[in-house]
Amino acid sequence: MDRPKLAVWKFASCDGCQLSVLDCEDELLALSGAVQIAHFLELSSAVDDGPYDLSLVEGSITTAADVARIHRVRERSRTLVTIGACATAGGIQALRNFADVAEFTSMVYAHPEYIETLATSTAIAAHVPVDFELRGCPIDRRQLLEVITAFLAGRRPNIPNTSVCTECKRRGLTCVMVADGTPCLGPVTHSGCGALCPAQSRGCYGCFGPTTDPNVASLAGWLRTCGMSDDDIDRAFATFNVGAPVLAERHRREREP
Questions:
Q1: What is the pLDDT of residues 185-228, one digit of tens each?
Q2: Which residues are within 8 A (CB) of 28 and not within 5 positions of it... i.e. 6 or more apart?
Q3: CA distance 174 to 178
Q4: Strands 77-83 and 132-134
Q5: Using H for helix, E for strand and C for coil, what is the string for the chain?
């Protein structure tokens, strides 16, 4: 029986999530026996034209060429999984969504007339149907292996839809916000990192994006108690996942006259 074909694609991103795939090392060797890695330019220049059984897509859509290419990828992919903050929320480059891109390009490039870009940076799901979203900046290798294993087994990935606070509880960590007054986005941030920052007595930065129905307004009140101004709070949310709808709306409100 032919092995399922796996493809990994890059759009506007830093390549960090693709490097997380490569970081699987021993597991990647075992995986190569279960699937055919048909398209992964970070790994090999060998390319199979598809169609593909599973496509992992990193990066956001930022140009008209990206829009056309993601539609081609979707057409050739039986299952499409987006990986990382750029692919699931537009990435930190989604800050352009709240400013004038023409002004940016005129200040950065000597000949901005040669720059072809969209006014926004958007998630893959804004353009094509997505079968599963794997969050993180970068993604967690354990969650990635769960997604691929679930695909091979024909089941839904077992990725808990909980907050970072639940991971702190499982690790027996003291809440840095309650105990130390350290600002932390853990209550509204999707789990997956294993409470990496709180384990080092640092507040969560929101790398894995917002949980389902996060109470951002309530957390903002706690952050003010920790001494943050409204501008500081807005900046705290305007990072990796600023393009996520619930955070984008807050960012937009803060900039209304």
A1: 999 999 999 999 999 999 999 999 999 889 998 999 999 999 99
A2: 21, 22
A3: 8
A4: parallel
A5: CCCCEEEEEECECCCHHHHHHHCCCHHHHHHHHHCEEEEECCCCCCECCCCEEEEEEECEECCHHHHHHHHHHHHCEEEEEEECHHHHHCCHHHHHHHCCHHHHHHHHCCCHHHCCCCCCCECHHHCCCCCEEECECCECHHHHHHHHHHHHHCCCCCCCCCEHHHHHHHHCCCCHHHHHCCCCCHHHEECCCCCCCHHHCCCCCCCCCECCCCCHHHHHHHHHHCCCCHHHHHHHHCCCCCCCHHHHHHHHHHCCC
What is the phi/psi pair of residue 143, to 5°?
A: -65, -35
Q: Are strands 5-10 and 52-58 parallel, antiparallel or unpaired?
A: parallel
Q: At residue 255, what are phi and psi to the nearest 5 degrees?
A: -105, 5
| pLDDT per residue as tens digits for the range 39-84 | 999 988 989 988 999 999 999 999 999 999 999 999 999 999 999 9
Q: Is the peptide bond before 129 cis (omega within 30 degrees of 0)?
A: no
